[in-house]
């Protein structure tokens, strides 16, 4: 059995808020602090101030504790409040297991006009129906352990004597700075489902220390899970300022992920820059540090030289160059960038050939390669190139994501028109002239002959070595040599 006054002490601690502490930079920041209201933790079965609460009853039941505290379960007994008597003395109202999705603060001015403290909890509650009305004595508001996901900036504006606002342990995803009439209000927000893809950079600029536990706020969205909100917002602020550089002022920049360092003491941002549809004639000469993804589709680029010469592209792993004017990527041959890329998208450019062996070697050396996109280019169905290209696509069909949509063309001898064929299904008879076909066949036959001879020579050498080791005799040909 709990000692007398224990629940009141717990509740007082919750109203005054937690002691702020800097969270460690680790993924263990997901622990939600206990925000249970003491009086709601265990329901009394018998009370001298009211009737027993049947375990299977869903009707609201309230208990008045002299001199001025009322605890209600499953709602408010409106009739009893309106009837006058001891409930009119209520200064401290605690609402447990609120049964509705909304709570209307307007009823407080009618039922408990002299209320000084309000506590509200219940996993059904999602919204406040209205902003709080003018309640001249209300000093503390504690709404915790609910599914409350939105509050307006003026929700508590009319509470001119408000001192503490405790909104911990709800499901708030984003807030803007609250408007208050009173001089100073302590606001507690820890344990909500903060979505750090939203803009809450204002928290960095807030200097009044009104938001007492802001250093302990933790992101809960899929992108930033476990990261401190202030850390995520600081990186977003820096990236936003970096994106004002004259080279990319008309692009957009975002922090796509915050990677935890190996020692768990810092974060490394992964930044996405979107410069698509911006009229670029060349790759921008500046990118924010740690840019890993660059979208620069539908521009007028003709070259990818900067991938090999500009240090700002060293960390770029995913680049989308679709629908530009690029005619060749030969400059990427044997480069560090090609050995470390993850996604390279070249759809809709002007490529007609690539050095297949160069790309294939880079893929084999690159353990992190993800996807390559090459469709909607004017690939030329040259006899030798098309066959090599086809072998490459078949070997790496899972890597070249659009391999089934890649076509090449040849000039029809009959009418001089371009004729397009899927590279994966093209045959030598489709694209090779008789002379080319015969030459290719000759070289293929010659290759087979040489390969056979090499195998025979090595086999004979192995046999002679074995015979010499076993019998000590040299080969017959060596014996006959002068």
Automatic annotation (TrEMBL):
<keyword id="KW-1015">Disulfide bond</keyword>
<dbReference type="GO" id="GO:0005886">
    <property type="term" value="C:plasma membrane"/>
</dbReference>
<protein>
    <recommendedName>
        <fullName>SRCR domain-containing protein</fullName>
    </recommendedName>
</protein>
<dbReference type="InterPro" id="IPR001611">
    <property type="entry name" value="Leu-rich_rpt"/>
</dbReference>
<dbReference type="InterPro" id="IPR001190">
    <property type="entry name" value="SRCR"/>
</dbReference>
<dbReference type="GO" id="GO:0034220">
    <property type="term" value="P:monoatomic ion transmembrane transport"/>
</dbReference>
<feature type="signal peptide">
    <location>
        <begin position="1"/>
        <end position="21"/>
    </location>
</feature>
<keyword id="KW-0407">Ion channel</keyword>
<feature type="transmembrane region" description="Helical">
    <location>
        <begin position="441"/>
        <end position="463"/>
    </location>
</feature>
<keyword id="KW-1003">Cell membrane</keyword>
<keyword id="KW-1133">Transmembrane helix</keyword>
<keyword id="KW-0732">Signal</keyword>
<keyword id="KW-0813">Transport</keyword>
<feature type="domain" description="SRCR">
    <location>
        <begin position="165"/>
        <end position="276"/>
    </location>
</feature>
<keyword id="KW-0406">Ion transport</keyword>
<dbReference type="InterPro" id="IPR032675">
    <property type="entry name" value="LRR_dom_sf"/>
</dbReference>
<keyword id="KW-0472">Membrane</keyword>
<dbReference type="InterPro" id="IPR051432">
    <property type="entry name" value="KCNMA1_auxiliary"/>
</dbReference>
<keyword id="KW-0812">Transmembrane</keyword>
